[in-house]
Design goal:
The protein has helices spanning about 35-40, 50-70, and strands at about 5-10, 15-25, 25-35, 85. With about 90 residues, it is of the alpha+beta class.
């Protein structure tokens, strides 16, 4: 159960999330992180919607490490089951 990097899917402004994926072997795992969680990880000037992909790229290692720990703990949400990260996930 080792997750590896997947792909950046996109920023959904209306849902205030960034969608991405990770892989467990050949299986793609849908993931999302709230934009407020990303802003918590990088508390600087406000990030415009068109800057979210660059912000995700800067924070990718930390985001994916936390997603992997939730995956190992089988903390799935939604249909289809996936990993959802919120600010509280980084305040441990």
């Amino acid at each position: 159960m080792t997750l590896t990097s997947g792909r950046f899917i996109g920023h959904e402004y209306d849902r205030m999330i960034v969608r991405f994926s990770m892989h467990d072997g050949a299986r793609e795992i849908p993931c999302a992180i709230s934009t407020s969680a990303m802003d918590y990880l990088e508390p600087s000037t406000p990030v415009r919607p068109e800057q979210r992909e660059a912000q995700f790229t800067r924070l990718r290692d930390r985001i994916e490490a936390r997603a992997a720990s939730k995956y190992r703990a089988t903390e799935f949400e939604g249909t289809p089951p996936g990993i959802v990260l919120r600010g509280i996930d980084f305040r441990l």
